Amino acid sequence: MKLETSNKPLSIFAFSSLTDIVMLLLIFFLLTSQFVIQTGVKVKLPGAQNNEQVTQSRMIVTISSQNRIFLGSEEIGIDKLAGRLEQIKQASPEGNLVIRADKTVQIDLIIRVIDAAKGVGIDKFTIETEKISY
Predict the structure, then answer these.
(1) pLDDT in tens, 39-76
(2) Does 34 have pLDDT greater than 90?
């Protein structure tokens, strides 16, 4: 008895499975592109019409509306800020300090943070804002 084998090439390609995969990838990338790495301290940033995208930095100082200062997600006092910034600067000397201050924070506290950073040799500052349109 002779068995027949069919080794014929497939003439019809089913696009339905490929379409499902492409749609799943599209949904995955759309969802994951919305995640932004932030420090976890909620602040209402001041608005600016001509703001630029902030590059990622290891030195992010956040000042909350209660005048609490955070380096990353760790709460720190203004007196210990200079020492911690110096440790981070020695580990990675990128040199850009990102300041995320709530819009209700007085400018005096922001100046004290900048002064502490200048004391350890950091001379580049970025004050993060939200983009608004008038």
Answers:
(1) 566 666 676 666 565 556 678 889 988 989 998 888 89
(2) no
Distance from C-alpha of 81 to C-alpha of 84, rounded to nearest angstrom = 5
User: pTM score > 0.85 for this model?
Assistant: no
118 — phi, psi (to 5°)? Answer: -65, -30
> Is 25's pLDDT higher than 90?
yes
Q: What angle do CA 29, 30, 31 make, to 5 degrees?
A: 90
Picking from 72, 74, 69, the residue whose alpha carbon sits closest to that of residue 113 is 69
Alpha carbon dihedral 110, 113, 118, 123, in 10-degree steps, equals -60
Position 130, amino acid: E
SS3 letters across the chain: CCCCCCCCCCCCCCHHHHHHHHHHHHHHHHHHCCCCCCCCCCCCCCEECCCCCCCCCCCEEEECCCCCEEECCEECCHHHHHHHHHHHHHHCCCCEEEEEECCCCCHHHHHHHHHHHHHCCCCEEEECCEECCC
Taken in order of first residue, the domains within the chain and their CATH numbers are 47-131 (3.30.420.270)
